[in-house]
Amino acid sequence: QVQLVESGGGLVQPGGSLRLSCAASGISFSTKNLYWYRQGPGKQREWVALISSGGTTNYADSVKGRFTISRDNAKNVGYLQMNSLKPDDTAVYYCHTGGASWGQGTQVTVSS
């Protein structure tokens, strides 16, 4: 059974940083693409970043240059380093490896 557990969210001031983690189990993590999505209040879930199984990364324009996705296949963990955070980044953040399984998400609130 695939399980994804996100952590690392919290309340941060504009301009601050957070690092989110995604612990995966029940899958061959190293062979999967890893995605981060987010869903802000009153908004649809949107894609944020991707790191392929081979390490290629891609980002939504709204976070390019501020967010960095990475992975540690030895630990079955993915990360999302978020810098220069803005109030518009406020959302529940989810990691995803394809298929039907989603974690519970982690709340990120950017506010002064």
Q: Briefly note the structural class of the backbone.
A: mainly beta
Helix content: under 10%
The major beta sheet can be summarized as: 6 strands, mixed
Radius of gyration: 13 Å
Description:
By secondary structure, the chain is mainly beta. Helices cover 0% and strands 48% of the residues. The protein is built from no helices and 10 strands. The protein has strands at 3-7, 10-12, 18-25, 34-39, 46-51, 57-59, 67-72, 77-82, 91-96, 106-110. The strands form 2 sheets. The protein has a 6-stranded mixed β-sheet with strand order 2-10-9-4-5-6, with no helix packed on it. Strands 1-3-8-7 form a 4-stranded antiparallel β-sheet, with no helix packed on it. The chain starts with a strand and ends with a strand.
List the helices and strands and how they pair.
Layout: E1 3-7, E2 10-12, E3 18-25, E4 34-39, E5 46-51, E6 57-59, E7 67-72, E8 77-82, E9 91-96, E10 106-110
Parallel strand pairs: 2-10
Antiparallel strand pairs: 1-3, 3-8, 4-5, 4-9, 5-6, 7-8, 9-10
Short recap of the structure:
This protein is mainly beta.
Tag the structure with descriptive keywords.
112 residues, mainly beta, globular, six-stranded mixed sheet, single chain, four-stranded antiparallel sheet
